[in-house]
From TrEMBL:
Organism in which the protein naturally occurs: Lysinibacillus pakistanensis
Protein name in UniProt: Peptide ABC transporter substrate-binding protein
Family assignment from sequence similarity: Belongs to the bacterial solute-binding protein 5 family.
PROSITE patterns: SBP_BACTERIAL_5 (PS01040)
Signal peptide (residue range): 1-20
Domain Solute-binding protein family stretches: 72-488
Keywords: Signal, Transport
Membrane disposition: Lipid-anchor
Family annotation (InterPro entries): Peptide/Ni-bd (IPR030678), SBP_5 (IPR039424), SBP_5_CS (IPR023765), SBP_5_dom (IPR000914)
Length: 607
C-alpha cells in the first residue's frame, strides 16, 4: 500500500511540475520575424546602418530615451541640466545600471567613465566610426578626430565623479538632448573593449549589454535571438520576453504567407498583393497602414561616379555637371507614379518637395519648410513635363561634342525589396518615355540585399539612386549635413563651377553660415536658404517621407517609444504582443487618438 501511495505522490508531483512549466511558458511572449538584410557588426560605435541600429538599440541604453509621445525621459541618466547658453551639459547617472555578459552574468556597473570611453573610441579616427561627424559637436572633438589634438582630456567630456558626466560643446546647442539618442553617444566599458580590440562586436560573446535584451543567439544568415535582460534596471517595462529573427533571402516575398500561417508575427505587405488582402475579409482584418516617420527619401545624383567602365562613368560625370541636364531629370520624375508602387491609395499624401520633412521643427509656430526661399519649393510639385523637355533641349545643345547621347544612367536598387525593384522599373520607363531614349538610357541593376549601403551607395557605384536619411537630432542641420564635404551622399561639393573664394563650395558656405547663427529664427532662415539652393540646383531630387506602405503585425505601433531622430524607434521596450493584428480602421482610430494625446503631452512638456 505504501508503495502505491508513493507512486501516486510522484505522479502528482510530475503532473504539477508539467503544469507549472506549461504555465510558465504561456507567460513567455515571443515576437518572430524573417529578414534578408544581414547585420555585419554589433559594434554600435562604428556602424551607421539602420538594421544594425535596430539591434543595438535593444542591447545598449544611452543617457535618455523617449516615451510613446516623443517626450524625453530618463535613461541611464536620471537627471540633467545645462548652463544658460547650452554649451555645458551635466548628467547624473542612475546607480542601478549594470553591464551584463552574453550569458546573463553581471560584469560591472555602468559609470560615467563609460561615456568618456565610448566617445573616445568614436573620435579616434583609426576606428573609422561612421557617426563620428555627429560627435564633433563636443568641444575639440573635430580637432582630436583630425589629429590636431592628441590629448583626449582636451575634448569636451569628462567624468566629474563615478556617476556624473559633463559635456562641453563647441557652440550653444539647445537641441543637444536629442543628439544623445544616437549611438555615437552611447557608453562602452573601456576595459572590455580594450581587451577585445578589433573583435569587439564580432560575436555575441565579444559584447557587453546594459539594455533591455541580451543576444542569446547570433548565427549570421540563419538566426538571431534576443532574450530579456533579467538584470536590466527597468525590466518591468520589457514586456516581450524573446525576439526571434529568422534569415530568409526571400524574406520580403515569403513573409506575408508565413504571417498567414502563424509562423511569424509581422510582415510588410507588398503593393503587388495589397489589393488581394483588402478584398479578402480575413486578410483585410489583419493589415494596416504603417505610421509615417521623419525619414526623407530622395534621388541622389552622383558627382563622384565609381562604377564599372561599361556604364561610362566619365560620360555621366560630364553630363551631371551640366545644370540643364540635372534639371531635366529633376522635372521629369513623376513622383506620384513612383509612389504608386508603395502606396496605391493616397500617394500624394507621402510626397515631400523638400529634404527636411514638414512638421519637423518650427519657429514661433511657422513650419521650417515654409521659410523663404524654401517655401516656394515646398509648396509645388517638381514634376513638370514642359520644363523637363525644355531643359533636355538646352542640355543637348550645351553638351554637344562633350557628352555622348544617350547618357547611361546606372540606377541600382536593393534586391531585398520587391517594391523598390518594381519602383525602379516604373521610374526607368516613365523618365525614358518622357525624355526619350535618344537622351538617356536608365540602367536598372539589382544590388545586394545585405550591405547595400557599404557596397553600393557609399563607394559611389551609382549615377542616380533612391536614397534616404533619418534625422539624428532636432535641428535642420541634420538634413543638410549629409550633402556637405564631410557627408555621406552624392558629393555635390565636387560639382564643377561652385567653388567660392575661400576654396569651399557655395553650398558648404551656406551651411557653415547657418551653423554659426545662435539665434534660432536666424539659424533656421539660413538653413532654409541652404536647402533651397541644394534643391534648386538639382543636386538632389526630393521624393517622399518614410513609413509608407502596409503591414500585418501583432505589435501596436502606438505603444512604441517615439522619436523622429536616433534609435529610440527601434526599441521593443514598452511594447507587447496583441492578441490579433490591428486592422486599418482600428489603426486610423488609434492614430487620431494618439495624435491628440501627443499634442497634449508635448504642450505639457513645454510648460
Amino acid at each position: 500500500m505504501k508503495r502505491y501511495w508513493w507512486l501516486l505522490v510522484c505522479l502528482v508531483a510530475l503532473l504539477c511540475a508539467a503544469c507549472s512549466d506549461d504555465s510558465s511558458s504561456e507567460k513567455k511572449s515571443e515576437y518572430r520575424v524573417v529578414y534578408s538584410g544581414e547585420i555585419k557588426t554589433l559594434n554600435y560605435l562604428k556602424t551607421s546602418e539602420t538594421n544594425e541600429f535596430a539591434v543595438a538599440a535593444n542591447l545598449v541604453d544611452g543617457l535618455i530615451e523617449y516615451d510613446k509621445y516623443g517626450v524625453v525621459q530618463p535613461g541611464l541618466a536620471k537627471e540633467w541640466s545645462s548652463n544658460d547658453d547650452a554649451t555645458v551639459w551635466t548628467f547624473k547617472l542612475r546607480e542601478d545600471a549594470k553591464w551584463i555578459t552574453h550569458d546573463g552574468k553581471e560584469y560591472s556597473n555602468v559609470v560615467a567613465q563609460d561615456f568618456v570611453d565610448g566617445l573616445h573610441y568614436v573620435l579616434d579616427a583609426k576606428n573609422e566610426s561612421s557617426t563620428a561627424w555627429i560627435a564633433t559637436v563636443v568641444k575639440n572633438g573635430e580637432a582630436f578626430y583630425n589629429g590636431e589634438l592628441t590629448d583626449f582630456k582636451q575634448v569636451g567630456i569628462k567624468a566629474t565623479d563615478e556617476h556624473t558626466v559633463e559635456y562641453t560643446l563647441e557652440t550653444p546647442t539647445p537641441y543637444f538632448l536629442s543628439m544623445l539618442n544616437y549611438v555615437c553617444f552611447f557608453p562602452v566599458n573601456g576595459k572590455f573593449i580594450e581587451e577585445k580590440g578589433d573583435s569587439f562586436g564580432t560575436t555575441r560573446e565579444n559584447f557587453l549589454y546594459n539594455g533591455s535584451y541580451i543576444l542569446d543567439k547570433f548565427e549570421p544568415q540563419n538566426e538571431r535571438v534576443l532574450v530579456k535582460n533579467e538584470l536590466y534596471w527597468d525590466k518591468d517595462n520589457v514586456l516581450i520576453d524573446r525576439i526571434r529573427y529568422k534569415y530568409n533571402k526571400e524574406a520580403a516575398t515569403v513573409a506575408p504567407e508565413l504571417f498567414l500561417r502563424g509562423e511569424i508575427d509581422s510582415a510588410s505587405i507588398p503593393t503587388s498583393i495589397i489589393d488581394e488582402w483588402f478584398k479578402d475579409d480575413k486578410k483585410k482584418s489583419q493589415v494596416r497602414q504603417t505610421q509615417n516617420n521623419f525619414y526623407t527619401y530622395f534621388y541622389a545624383l552622383n558627382f563622384n561616379p565609381q562604377f564599372d567602365a561599361e556604364y561610362e562613368p566619365n560620360n555621366w560625370k560630364v553630363a551631371v555637371n551640366n545644370k540643364d541636364f540635372r534639371k531635366s531629370l529633376f522635372h521629369a520624375l513623376d513622383r506620384v507614379s513612383a509612389m504608386l508602387t508603395l502606396e496605391p491609395y493616397n500617394p500624394k499624401d507621402l510626397l515631400s518637395n523638400t529634404i527636411t520633412p514638414k512638421n519637423f521643427v518650427d519657429v514661433d509656430g511657422l513650419d521650417y519648410t515654409q521659410l523663404a526661399p524654401l517655401a516656394d519649393i515646398a509648396n509645388q510639385d517638381s514634376f513638370k513635363k514642359d520644363q523637363a523637355l525644355a531643359y533636355k533641349e538646352k542640355a543637348m545643345t550645351a553638351l554637344k561634342g562633350k557628352a555622348t547621347f544617350p547618357v547611361k544612367v546606372l540606377m541600382p536598387y536593393n534586391a531585398g525589396s520587391p517594391d523598390w525593384a518594381n519602383r525602379s522599373q516604373v521610374v526607368e520607363q516613365q523618365i525614358e518615355k518622357l525624355l526619350g531614349t535618344d537622351y538617356i538610357d536608365i540602367i536598372v541593376e539589382a544590388g545586394p540585399s545585405t550591405g547595400f549601403l557599404s557596397e553600393v551607395r557609399r563607394p559611389g557605384k551609382f549615377a542616380l539612386l533612391e536614397a534616404n536619411w533619418g534625422p539624428d537630432y532636432a535641428d535642420p542641420s541634420t538634413y543638410t549635413d549629409p550633402f556637405t564635404v564631410d557627408g555621406t551622399y552624392n558629393k555635390p561639393e565636387l560639382a564643377e563651377g561652385y567653388i567660392e573664394a575661400n576654396g569651399k563650395s557655395k553650398y558648404q558656405n551656406l551651411v557653415d553660415e547657418a551653423k554659426s547663427a545662435i539665434d534660432t529664427a536666424k539659424r533656421y532662415e539660413l538653413f532654409a536658404k541652404a536647402e533651397a539652393f541644394l534643391i534648386d540646383e538639382a543636386f538632389v531630387i526630393p521624393y517622399s517621407v518614410g513609413g509608407s506602405g502596409y503591414v500585418a503585425s501583432k505589435l501596436n505601433p502606438f505603444e512604441a517609444q517615439y522619436s523622429p531622430f536616433g534609435v529610440t524607434a527601434e526599441k521593443f521596450k514598452g511594447q507587447q504582443l496583441l492578441d490579433k493584428p490591428m486592422s486599418n480602421d482600428e489603426f486610423k482610430e488609434a492614430l487620431a487618438k494618439w495624435e491628440q494625446e501627443r499634442a497634449n503631452a508635448l504642450a505639457k512638456a513645454a510648460q
